[in-house]
Amino acid sequence: MADRTLHGTGATPRSGVGTVVWYGRDISLPDPDDVKVDPEAEGRRFANAVDTAREELASEREATAERVGEDEAAVFDAHIQFLEDPTIEEAVETMIGEGQPAPNAVDAAFGEHIEQFEGMDGRMAERADDLRDVRDRLLRLLTDGERVDLGDLPDGSVVLAERLTPSDTAQLDPDRVAGFATVTGGRTSHASIFARSLALPAVVGVGEALEAIEDGTEVVIDGDSGEVLVAPDDTERAAAASDSGAAVVDASVETTDGRHVEVAANIGQPAELKPAVERGADGVGLYRTEFLFLDRETPPSEDEQYEAIRETLDTFPDGRVVVRTLDIGGDKQIPYLDQPDEENPFLGERGIRRSLGPDSDLFATQLRALLRAAADGAGDLAIMFPMVATVPELDAALDALDTAAADIEKSDAVDVEVGVMIETPSAAFMAGELAARVDFLSIGTNDLTQYVMAADRENERVGDLHDPSHPGVLRAIHQTVTAAHEEDAWVGMCGEMAGDPDLTELLVGLGLDELSMSAVTIPEVKTAVSDTEYSTASERADRAQLAATRSEVHTTLDT
């Protein structure tokens, strides 16, 4: 029997209670010595399994795109590419020809590549999980193994797993699933981000103790405290079942001593607009335009982009919509743009570097669409450039914007704010010079933390380092806000840190003017802003960013 209370990392400030369903238990392989192999028949079995897996992936991709969004559904494209990888396919066929049963050949061929990816650094190590996903799918088909259909679980299910890949999490139906918990993972993993998008209670990184919980056990998932409670009593069960989070606040909020803080939503696709409105978002602090370019053979036209942005502006007629120009590279791949195969893509050609280089024509088209939408839409448009690291990059982007404005008929009617994402140490150091040229800066804490701490957010071995509350990251934020305000520019934050209600007082104290997040945490953050006294929060934030260690930071915040 498991300990009654297990501790991990809360991914969503929600609680749920339900019955355990284990996902992804080990698949039993045949003993090659006990099987008489017909290579031709085994080859056909493998080919049929590949065809079926391809059909499953295509179906799951379509369902995920409809329910969650194109950005999240894109992970299935990567799985299909691995499924069709000729190197792996050839290795499987060779082993089958040498007398291996098809399941064993698949396990061995994929295992070799999984091991290679696990030995790499940074985002390439994430590919190991994608390969495991494809391998396990094929093994299930080849062994007639039972498959837990994550998209069709009984009502009130709590999914437990060693890990959940993005494709796994994207299938979870929040109307049926009460939550999930995993052995591995961190708050900024893709599974955690999906959980917040779905408003699904989740606890990750619980450790091996989670494996002692058996199927059918009733548990509480507390995504706020990061606890998994086994066999809850009536009081604990009722408290978890009744948790609906803070009350929605439609009006804008300010601190107890009168400092206004805008609380906005991060939007990755149109389906997220309605939840953002329903959760009380003041506007959109990060509109990711990448979804417009996914799941197609050619880039979207200027008119298509215009219509999408216009819809968002009309959804928030009294608010501000901050649109990030195309940010691809790193882990965001768009095949028809012929992106380079870089050894470390997160330090390579991404964001504004591509917009000013190989994607300059797409950049010009997108800027024209944005300016046209700004002239016609109800809300206020702000344009934000991603991954700017130098002043010349910003100057070139501003020149491109001026050129686009001159190209449209309604240029006299266009009134937009312009800003820069602060994601690199260079941008934080140069915040004053950047702010002098624009209206606002927006801090992307996921990447900023990754680069400041030299710690990949998906690498569990350095998970403790990927924490935006480290003094080094706080000082980068403090320096950015101070420098921007000296240039009369406002400062927002659109990384995962902004959506953590436990850090709201710290962020308000650091001087952030806007916080943007997944819609699920907007009510909690608005409540936290309303409960904060800015003068006290400012003094506490000053002490926190001058601390020497992360533990000292948290001690300061708790006193």
Blueprint of the fold:
Layout: E1 5-7, E2 9-10, E3 15-23, H1 39-67, H2 70-73, H3 75-83, H4 86-97, H5 102-118, H6 127-143, E4 157-161, H7 166-170, E5 177-182, H8 190-197, E6 202-204, E7 218-222, E8 227-230, H9 234-241, E9 253-254, E10 260-267, H10 273-278, E11 284-288, H11 302-315, E12 320-324, H12 352-355, H13 360-376, E13 380-385, H14 391-407, E14 417-422, H15 425-429, H16 431-435, E15 440-443, H17 445-453, H18 471-486, E16 490-493, H19 504-509, E17 514-517, H20 522-530, H21 534-545, H22 550-558
Parallel strand pairs: 3-4, 4-5, 5-6, 10-11, 10-17, 11-12, 12-13, 13-14, 14-15, 15-16, 16-17
Antiparallel strand pairs: 1-8, 2-6, 3-7, 7-8, 9-10
Helix pairs in contact: 1-3, 1-6, 3-6, 4-5, 5-6, 11-13, 13-14, 21-22
